[in-house]
Amino acid sequence: MTPVILLSDNYVATGSEPWKLPDFNDLKEITNNKTIKYNTEDGFLPFLRDVNTFARPWAIPGTPGLEHRVGGLEKEDGTGNVSYDSDNHQYMTDMRAWKIDNIANDIDNLELYGDLESDTLVVGWGSTYGAITQAVNRLNKKGIKVASTHFVHLNPFPDNTGEILKKFKNVIIPELNTGQLSKLIRAKFLVDTIGINKVNAVPFTAQELEMKIGDLIQSFNSKPVEEPAAEPVEEVVEEPAAEVVEEVVEEPAAEPVEEVVEEPAAEPVEEVVEEPVTERVVERVTERVVERVVERVEEPTAETKELMDSAQDTTEDSKTEEEVQVDD
Questions:
Q1: Are β-strands 147-151 and 170-175 bridged in parallel, bridged antiparallel, or unpaired?
Q2: Within a domain: 204
Q3: Hey, which residues does 150 pair with through a beta bridge?
Q4: With a threshold of 0.85, does the pTM exceed it?
Q5: What's the domain count of the chain?
């Protein structure tokens, strides 16, 4: 079972348009995989999928002999039992994605309208169909080449979506939102789309899209604007980047290291350590020499002592004679 989400908007809900009732006999029959019997010789396997559609059999709960587990826990492939195996979880996740993608085999391909030889494609979905179609028709009548296509299914996209998008150089997507379809196409098909977006609760008009699409096509055809932009970028970015790095990093880094570290380290050691030691040694040697000279000068020799003694005796004798004369 696959859930189906129908996207619509207020413009479609409140708008009115005459449309022809289809012949119910021409409508395709809607079938299902409902079963009331075993699908294998050994019994019923609720997760035994069809090899073409990847759909599994649909057994109504309570059918005798077809009882199986239901719920949100991961199931084992085939049996439908609760499984916590990592490889089984990877396989079941991939299987569910393949089943959705496989629905593209049952939906109609995209159709092109307008000038099929143009370089510009206008892509729409939902209620923008009328305004886009009228705008494209008016532009083609004016001689402006443009084509259009319209999505009915968005997930999965029709099988020929990528093939059609690659035929055109420019893809314009008008949307009454902020660019939801544009983002999906960019992500899945790697197409550089150009959006025309608005969310002011007012639908597009044919005249509005005619003017905006025409202006974009005119800008596409004005090619001189694109070429000069490439040359200045290469010249300005590449050349100055190499010169600045070599000059600034290498030269100034070597000079300050040699001047600051080597020269001041040698000068203070020679002046402070060597000169004061020499002066102190000279002073001490000089003091000792002077002391020894003075000691030798002050010490009297033997001859000097005898002379001094004889002189003293003579002086005393003379004093005695003078004293005797005075007594007389």
A1: unpaired
A2: yes
A3: 124
A4: no
A5: 2
